[in-house]
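Q: Fold this one first, please.
A: Sequence and structure below.
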Amino acid sequence: MSTDDLPLPAHVDVVVVGAGLSGIGAGYRLQTECPDRGYLILESRETMGGTWDLFTYPGVRSDSDMFTLGYQFKPWREAKAIADGPSILRYIQETAAEFGIDEHIRYSTKVVSADFSTAEARWTLTLDHRGERTTMTCDFLYSCAGYYDYDDTYTPDFPGIEEYAGTVAHPQFWPADLDYSDQKVVVIGSGATAVTLVPSMTSGEGRAEHVTMLQRSPTWISAVPSRDAKADFLRAHLPAGLAHTLVRSKNIAFGTAFYQFCQQRPQQARKLLLGMTMKLLGDEQMVADHFTPTYDPWDQRLCAVPSGDLFKAIKAGDAEVVTDTIDSFVPEGIRLSSGRVLEADVVVTATGLQLLAFGGISPQVDGETVPLSEQFVWQGAMMTGVPNFAVCIGYTNASWTLRADLSHKLVCKVLNWMDGHDYAAVEPRPDRDLTERPLLDLAAGYVQRSIDAFPRQGDSGPWRVRQNYVLDSITTLRTNLAKTLAPTPRSAVRRAQDEKVA
């Protein structure tokens, strides 16, 4: 029997929202570290995979190496360190099947609302299950839906776009029947999606005639090897688990060191990255005009291009980069502020994603919606004002899964602590006034547009969402839960219920 044929239970101990990379990892940790707790993963779409099932645009791939983006408990065995989307999706599916996590997933089930009752110490979830409204309850709610809006995108208002005679596509909703072979293509944007699309659309069967990447301003882009030679050597000579651990540790150390180098010595980091780009392109003026950002490296997320494929496409003449702003669309393409017209049969608006807190769930407590922007995040996972609730938020400067797995383990630690002390509910509460900071401290446009709708981070201790896996891995699971989590004993809940009945 598939899980599609199973009815939703009336109650379960833990509900995980989202069956993507994070949700599957959460399922593994819950069943191995909290074996006495029942759990269910609710997925609003019809399949698992999250981002890696949703995005199907040409060349979709990770921008982190798979030894750190992959799970600690499931070695990555494929050749490419920077993997394509279909390979990552297969890896997620294999993990779910291997550990029986897929048996805990219910698809086409969207959490419409969530209300925590302090009297009963449990959540009531209103669900849209295959088009019908239903409810269920749980003791603990864990959102692993990320912070992107799967149903909407960010597209600026382009003047004259209704006059354009060609095809417009957005990467998030890539048309399955889009044929761009021998076509002139303009990709608007210069982020991770754009730098992936450009070389992909200029290679292989059905390649475009020419692709132009139109950017308003340059982005830091770094060429990285598509394969990890040291990883290949270790995997060939050591057991899979040991090799995976060693490669993962190596990549974590390098990534952390490089980020700190960029933060502490930005001018030297600029020189290093520009030197690498100059070596690949061999055109000093092109590097100055199109690949020299005004901001410092890692003020925004660094774009990785495996084997320098973007630079190779440009050098071969199959692609070009234009730095300018859009005046308006015209029937034949895009007229720039400089007056130049970029002819285009296809325009791809790789203009960014929309942020959405907790998969669109606005948590309520006793029927009152909690104002998220007034709350603080504890240990990057739980939130003030909302008992028995956790969120999974990955790193912005490293692989998402590194932070996600720490959050999964922390949630399990909290659940086991609650069981050990017979607590029905816990809520993080600061013991002092906190200086608020944005939850995601990035200058990227997609962050700045929506971050005010998210909870805040504090300025120190467990209230600071650090972008440092090495420190987090040492401190997160050693945190003193009794110091910052305010508990509600189960006996108090039972007593209140008995008084209500009487």
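Q: Good. Now the second chain.
A: Here it is, same layout.
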Amino acid sequence: MGQFKLLLKTLGPGLLFASMAIGTSHLVLSTKAGAQYGWIMIIPIILANILKYPFFEFGVRYTSVTENSLIQGYLNLGKKYLWLYGLITLVSVFTILAALYVVTSGLFINLFKIESIGINTIALGLFSFISLLLIIGRYRFLEVSLKLVISILFLALVITTVLVINKGQAIAISGFEPPKIFNELGILFLIGLVGWMPTAVEASGWVSMWSMEKLKSMAVKPTLKEALNEFNLGYSLTALLAVFFLIIGWMTLYGTATELSGNAVLFADQVVTLFTSHIGDWAYFLIAIAAFATMFSTCMTAHDAVSRVSLDILSKLYPNCKKLGSKSAFAFTVIFLALINWVVISVFSGNMANLVALATFVSFVMAPLIGWMNLKTVTGSDFPKQYRPSGLLQILSYLGMIFLTGFAVYYCWIVI
């Protein structure tokens, strides 16, 4: 019981990671994976979660031991690595948040049946509301509120998954033939699924920043074991929810020849309507709220993380500028990111595919290098030997780098 209370007290970075990761990769990609290719896609989902695990764990490990962010670790490796991570973050600044807010706006329009209001207007409202929450509440509000959101989401998904399984799989159309996975279209989808499952590797820096904030809020610093236990709980929850979304997509949509739209509003309507048509109209509100809570929490955590990481990178590049660490600088960054991404949404007219194309390319190509950088930060001579990852975890990280490199090379070959 004492260990459980301690875990609840240290709950934070792992919870935020789960909240951030269960957005597009879960609601969109896991659902599509089950809907289009069936249960077999559980293999790449589990594989991606296992092989990417060390890179996120290293972010928590580094911060827990050194009380510095992973960005400081990159700087210790050499300023060129910090610049590289800064470039990747810059791409995220102009793409990731816009894509997340578009999907969330689509879900909001669908949930409240307000098609007469444009997606740009809804997105502006969400940007304003979330920015206000982040500026006033900061990390503490984020942590406390997400404990409630994740609890509701987890309960809703458990209930929905059980109901879907109990109802049985949707009847396939006459003459249905399973789509091939290992053709160009299938491989591209597989790359996207693996690349964003549970999230992009550069998000390891985000987890590190949340770990820093958690340390500041605690009177007694948690041990490395306690910090890792908390993160492992959040990471395990992330993987489990991915499987839930896969099962829901597989049981309700596989074989029905339903093509999920790339438009945010249409996609939201398809997901909620098709799920309820299989389970029953009474479940509409449950599913709609679960889907919206998923994306809203993802927007909030990603917005917070990109703001913190951007400021941390700038503070490392310009150490003499003390104002970068102030509350006003954080508030300005949150608002700036909201405005710039709202402009991006307006220009791209709510098309998710165009918003994430550049970010996808950069994330996939750089993922093996970010993984290597993370490994070097926790195995270098300046990192205490007794806290370095085990040999097994290091081997797993090398397997992960090989795995990511293979996907990155193939992706570049197809795209270029």
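Q: Anything worth noting on the second one?
A: The first helix runs from residue 2 to 10.
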